[in-house]
């Protein structure tokens, strides 16, 4: 009887019986995979609690400071907690770090000096880093400070080009940047294990190279984090996984004491470093968000896997595919035409708790070479740990989506996206051979 009520509830939210039933058929096959995700979440939940207990987080830590922020107990304790969770010597976790790109730019510019070279051995980094590095000329880029950049692409099968990397490392190579997530590319996401292999190789050639990992979207997907595989610095955004949907802003840099110290002196000022930087009123959300992050990441992961399994049998290519192991929370679905991308995003938007009545349209956006459509009905503006999707209106007409603070919302959003495609005649459940 309960099942019938749920069907009715979905029907009243615009999901037809056929779409709901198809979703259930897919879900039935995912039980054992979902159980593993829940076990990981449980493991990581304990890890976070252990870190908070060992750092003796207390009620006073949840309060903030103003002004200079001297003696900000909660801020300092939170950074200790992050260092424990990410298995590093130290961490910088601040609302003054405005986003992921800022955190990465800060980690780079503070640990590199004129004459140094930065190397990416995993191909082109995330779009916004092109201007940070100076691949696309920009004011204040590393290039303007005389820091050069070298890149070695992955081989066509997604493996590391070890020979190319060996050739690229030279006397000036000071820092290696490794992006864990595929971002908006179709290369595979890197597991912590593979990142570890790459770091060992790099350090085998030149032990004093700083190995930095762009950890965006990867936090809590596995039981280990990149520093456990040898990374000197891990960097990410608090409006993605580790903010748990509650952090309203912020970024983190966790790593070797010296690397974090360099970043702190650059974020505030030489001589001041970590000692200043009022936490204002965000600490309770930073702590509680980190506490929730393992289960929220699990919800997002289930959503990604559900979508891959839902769309693949309908003939839409998905990356990662329905069976692949997961190392980040991003899912790509290729529709092959603009209408599919638009219908998908409109479905996601229509499932949102905020701005569900808004109909997204493709738009020219700064920094992109094609129109982009975005679906986001988030409590925190631009938050991509919340259910969100976007797709550039250009071949192969793929949509990238991620997030979902709860599994029921992720499930509803994805069903809504499919319903939107069905309503537009772009997906046909009758064609299924299952
Ligand atoms: C999101 C992301 C960034 C940049 O983060 P913003 O908060 O959008 O500036 C960098 N690298 C990767 C892999 C990302 O996913």
Describe the protein.
The protein has 434 residues and is α/β, with parallel strands linked by helices. Helices cover 39% and strands 13% of the residues. The chain has 12 helices and 12 strands. It has a 7-stranded mixed sheet, with helices on both faces. A 5-stranded antiparallel sheet has the order 8-9-12-11-10, covered by helices on one side. β11 and β12 form a beta hairpin. The protein is globular, with a radius of gyration of 22 Å. 50% of the residues are buried. It binds pyridoxal-5'-phosphate (PLP). The site of pyridoxal-5'-phosphate (PLP) has 13 residues, from α5.
- Cα-atom Rg, whole angstroms? 22 Å
Query: Helix tally?
Result: 12
Percent in helix: 25-40%
| Strands, count | 12
- Distance, first to last CA: 27 Å
Arithmetic mean pLDDT: 95
Q: Which geometry do the CA atoms define?
A: globular
Low-confidence stretches: none
Beta-strand proportion:
5-15%
Largest sheet, if any? 7 strands, mixed
In order across it, which strands form the biggest sheet? 1-7-6-5-4-2-3
Structural class label: alpha/beta
List the bound ligands: pyridoxal-5'-phosphate
